[in-house]
Design goal:
Layout (H helix, E strand, L loop, with lengths): L1 E5 L2 E5 L13 H10 L6 H17 L5 H8 L3 H7 L4 H9 L9
Helix pairs in contact: 1-5, 2-5
Length: 104
């Protein structure tokens, strides 16, 4: 675990960069995490990030890429275009939620 300041908030992150406390997340923090990943958030990125947050708040876990594509209405192809390093994993990290089950 490491302690960092993101968007003016001190947070703890695991070895892969996921927030240890999702309740500390905010949209400015999402922008900072996205920048670390080399992503400039567009309207479409935000749709995915907010979808991931809602899914986590509802079920306690973020969806894997197949479930994300099936339930969000965004195709797997587009998800990979938006988040080339792995859609579910990268979107979850930006959304400040734990890594979804099944993500490497």
């Amino acid at each position: 675990m490491t302690t960092q300041t993101l968007a003016g908030v001190t947070v703890e992150r695991d070895a892969e960069g996921f927030l240890m406390d999702p309740s500390l997340w905010g949209e400015a923090m999402a922008e900072a995490i996205a920048a670390e990943e080399g992503i400039e958030l567009t309207k479409r990125h935000w749709e995915v990030v907010r979808f991931m947050r809602r899914a986590y708040e509802t079920s306690g876990a973020g969806p894997n890429v197949r479930l994300l594509a099936r339930t969000s209405g965004i195709s797997v192809k587009e998800l990979y275009a938006l988040f080339p390093k792995g859609p579910a994993k990268t979107a979850a990290k930006i959304a400040g939620i734990p890594k979804p089950h099944g993500c490497i």
